[in-house]
């Protein structure tokens, strides 16, 4: 493993934000919110003062430039590199947003890179730099077409491995494809290229891509019957080149734990409660004024009666003196 580093700050950058997501699967009754997963987030400068990452391991031909990128492969033949999280992704529902860059100067290029949510970690091999017969989810950004008639490349596809099924390079994984889409223009794009993979257990798996315009997300695929992820699975990325080559860069990784907050619902009759309270308040207010007036009159009568009685008593007393 080789590290070329221009260290601009010490320590791994950590995120601690909470965010509301207004988009949620149709069958989820509630408001989807998210909390950053610091253990699976990786942003510049990527490394700490000891030239290590607290949460990720790097290997193969990976090169890290702390102010720019993590380069899984350079634009050279026969390279392979990888990065993998050190701790499992234990969230039940999650979202991973990745900024990446596939670029090079050659007219012929390959092979691509992959994103992994697998039981295995840091296992080099022939599938975009990762071991075959994997257990878990692989999302492949395949830039070289071997044998997929009628399919436009680059092609993005997902495959769920059971630990026994092999990825067939000769057919570009056609027989084991879970879902996929063509993404012409994702290589050497003029805008930051990103992927966003969102998973709700037993509900949905969705992949969105940004490569046409900044801030414009294009849905690649969504399935309402997602595979069950391994109970212990790691987040990783890998890439490889053969006779043809390209630069495959990871710019940032931001992972989030998703949870569903119940929607606040009020009965329709509740809308009439405020006027009722106001009406009740007016009745109480008018009633209190009437009571106060009656009491005031009674007090005046008592005072007047007392005065009359006192006057009569004094007159009677004076008459007795004479």
UniProtKB/TrEMBL annotation:
One GO location term (cellular component): Golgi membrane
GO molecular function, one term: D-mannose binding
Localization of this protein: Membrane
Keywords per UniProt: Membrane, Signal, Transmembrane, Transmembrane helix
Transmembrane segments: 289-313
Pfam families the record matches: Lectin_leg-like
Gene Ontology biological process terms in this record: endoplasmic reticulum to Golgi vesicle-mediated transport
Membrane-topology descriptor: Single-pass type I membrane protein
Main location: membrane
L-type lectin-like domain segment(s): 34-258
Residues spanning the signal sequence: 1-18
Entry coiled-coil feature ranges: none
Protein name: L-type lectin-like domain-containing protein
Phylogenetic placement of the source organism: Eukaryota, Fungi, Dikarya, Ascomycota, Pezizomycotina
């Amino acid at each position: 493993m080789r590290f070329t580093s221009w260290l601009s700050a010490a320590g791994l950058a950590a995120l601690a934000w909470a965010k509301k997501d207004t988009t949620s699967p149709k069958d989820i009754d509630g408001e989807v919110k998210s909390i950053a997963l610091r253990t699976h987030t990786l942003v510049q400068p990527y490394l700490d003062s000891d030239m290590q990452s607290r949460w990720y391991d790097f290997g193969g031909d990976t090169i890290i430039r702390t102010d720019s990128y993590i380069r899984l492969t350079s634009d050279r033949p026969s390279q392979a590199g990888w990065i993998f999280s050190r701790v499992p992704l234990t969230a039940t529902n999650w979202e991973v947003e990745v900024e990446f860059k596939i670029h090079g100067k050659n007219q012929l290029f390959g092979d691509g890179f992959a994103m992994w949510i697998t039981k295995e970690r840091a296992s080099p091999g022939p599938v975009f730099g990762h071991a075959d017969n994997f257990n878990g989810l692989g999302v492949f950004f395949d830039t070289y077409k071997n044998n997929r008639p009628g399919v436009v490349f680059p092609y993005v596809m997902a495959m769920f491995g059971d630990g026994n099924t092999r990825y067939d390079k000769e057919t570009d994984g056609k027989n084991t494809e879970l879902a996929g889409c063509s993404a012409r223009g994702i290589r050497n794009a003029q805008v930051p290229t990103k992927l966003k993979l969102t998973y709700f257990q037993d509900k949905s798996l969705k992949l969105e891509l940004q490569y046409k315009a900044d801030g414009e997300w294009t849905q690649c695929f969504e399935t309402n019957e997602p595979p069950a992820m391994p109970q212990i699975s790691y987040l990783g990325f890998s890439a490889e080149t053969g006779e043809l080559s390209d630069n495959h860069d990871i710019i940032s990784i931001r992972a989030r734990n998703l949870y569903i907050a119940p929607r606040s619902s009020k009965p329709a009759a509740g809308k009439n409660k405020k006027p009722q309270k106001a009406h009740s308040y007016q009745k109480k207010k008018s009633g209190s004024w009437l009571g106060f007036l009656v009491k005031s009159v009674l007090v005046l009568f008592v005072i007047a009666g007392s005065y009359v009685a006192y006057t009569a008593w004094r007159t009677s007393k004076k008459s007795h003196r004479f």
